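Here is one chain, start to finish.
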Amino acid sequence: MMNKPETSEDLEQELPPSKTKVKKQMHDLRDLGKQLTELPKDKWRALGLPENLLEALAEYKRITKFGAQKRQLQYIGKLMREVETAPILAKLDAWNGTSREHTAWLHQVEQWRDRLLEDGAEYKRITKFGAQKRQLQYIGKLMREVETAPILAKLDAWNGTSREHTAWLHQVEQWRDRLLEDGDALTELLANYPLADAQRLRALIRNALKEKELEKPPKSYREIFQLLREIIPAP
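Its structure:
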């Protein structure tokens, strides 16, 4: 009897998870553990958590030093590997009245906020120019993953920048979205701004669409915004 040939799907199932995937899973479990530490103790019982996890969560609440809390949270994340997380997430969503996607989005926003605050604070602690420069480069690298338009708009509001400038930023955003959604938008843009670099725009649009299709970080999407800021004159 001939053996059934292995399909690519079979081979994929046999492969161990990548280090990146394992690391992400660990971060997700630790984040979920952090959510649990913020719940009242009576909620823990309602989630049906095992005793060792309940004890670890209670211990976390007793700890006051940041370093010790961080180590305890890592331990909680380790314990979470042995727990079925789907029912916990569903229960948390029900309590919070939010969808899992919305909850994940909120955590992503919180994580970026924390990273930017931590790295920004580190920059302020540095006194040597060379070290400041390196830290600033690192902050710039982190900013590649951040949508800058809302930040710029908020800075404008704080700095008392005119409503016209904020409207201009929104106009830039709208052009970017149109370029990705409407095949005729580039022709219209070039008619309005004939000095624009058409070749670079076309390349960025192709790359942005490909990034979206492959669910990659939207690097080109953000580059389009920066390029449009140079093309469309500010008020």
